[in-house]
Amino acid sequence: MEGTEHNRALYLTVKCENSVVTRVLVDNGSSANIFPLSALKKLKVDDERIHKNSICFRGFNGGGKDSVGDIVLELIIGLVEFTMEFQVLDVAVSYNLLLGQPWIHASKAVLSTLHQMVKFEWDR
Fold this sequence. Notes:
The protein is mainly beta. It has helices at residues 37-42, 101-107; strands at 10-16, 19-26, 34-36, 56-58, 64-66, 69-77, 80-89, 97-99, 110-112, 117-119. The mean pLDDT is 87.
């Protein structure tokens, strides 16, 4: 490892809709779980499962992006299954899926970018 001087983000690999999804960014600064539309289409998820909404997301640049809608999906991380709601955004990003505060709080996860790991209690 590079030691305490590294600045790498925390990425996971998960299973979603019976497909393996790599480059899953865990971001405790995000107030939403985000699924880019391009990554969702690769999973061949039916568009009818997306529930339209009128939520606008603002990034650090101050610009806004309207949500395509929200979708509820099953994720498997390690041995644990999670049912999570995601906001679907039509954006070009470097990740395939973003797990934000809703997932972190629901799973009671503790993140460490320094140690490049996430821990959560499962089955006591």
